Amino acid sequence: MTGFTQTLAAATASLNRQIHAMPFNRALADGTLPEATFRGYIVQDAHYLEGFARALALVAAKASDPDAIALLASSAAGAISAERSLHAHYMQLFGVSAEQFAATEVSAACDHYVSYLLRVAAIGNFAEGVAALLPCFWIYRDVGRAIAERAAPGNPYAAWIDTYAGEAFDEGVTRMLALTDRVAAAGDAACRARMQAAFARCCWHEWHFWDSAYHERGWPAP
């Protein structure tokens, strides 16, 4: 991690510590997270993944060089294939059918996050889009690694932990970090300020998504 991504990390360090200490992630690590809570999380995460892949594709279309297009387009395909396999594993394990998944309402936290990502990807510039996409990669890798270090033996969520703590996911995150630094270096101060704002907002959305999943929140009553 060098350059601009160091600035991003420093600016969101407090929120990042809160994410690592969240009850959801602590319980996931020691294997005590209730199955119903994790099942609800996986269903919402699968809904989120569809929006995330669309945002990746939108941002890829704005890239000005072939390397960035290839990275983001391949990440969109990878997000769909690898994480859908993980979701399918747990949905089969928990008995969630395709019909049940389709009938499950998207939570307010999931809808809010996806809507923000798609808005930035659609009407923001390329640099903002890259910065908005980065937290989903970076935070999941770091949380996955931290959980893997302290995960209880026989953890029922080992497949989730192995995915995000694994080498393949790490390689994708490393490429996204390098792209973010490269894009920031090519931009001016105003561009970097917009990137930092988008990154911070999506870090908050990551926290909110897990918090909502842990408390099993849907939509607030009117």
From TrEMBL:
InterPro entries (alphabetical): Haem_Oase-like_multi-hlx, Thiaminase-2/PQQC, Thiaminase_II, Thiamine_Salvage_TenA
Annotated keywords: Hydrolase, Plasmid, Thiamine biosynthesis
Gene Ontology terms describing biological process: thiamine biosynthetic process; thiamine diphosphate biosynthetic process
Chemical reaction(s) catalysed: thiamine + H2O = 5-(2-hydroxyethyl)-4-methylthiazole + 4-amino-5-hydroxymethyl-2-methylpyrimidine + H(+); 4-amino-5-aminomethyl-2-methylpyrimidine + H2O = 4-amino-5-hydroxymethyl-2-methylpyrimidine + NH4(+)
Pfam families in UniProt: TENA_THI-4
Gene3D superfamilies: Heme oxygenase-like
Pathway in which the depicted protein is active: Cofactor biosynthesis; thiamine diphosphate biosynthesis
Keyword Acyltransferase applies: no
Top-level division of the source organism's lineage: Bacteria
GO molecular function: thiaminase activity
Chain ranges of the Thiaminase-2/PQQC domain: 15-215
Gene Ontology CC annotations of this record: cytosol
EC number(s) recorded for this UniProt protein: 3.5.99.2
Known function: Catalyzes an amino-pyrimidine hydrolysis reaction at the C5' of the pyrimidine moiety of thiamine compounds, a reaction that is part of a thiamine salvage pathway.
UniProt record similarity statement: Belongs to the TenA family.
Full protein name: Aminopyrimidine aminohydrolase
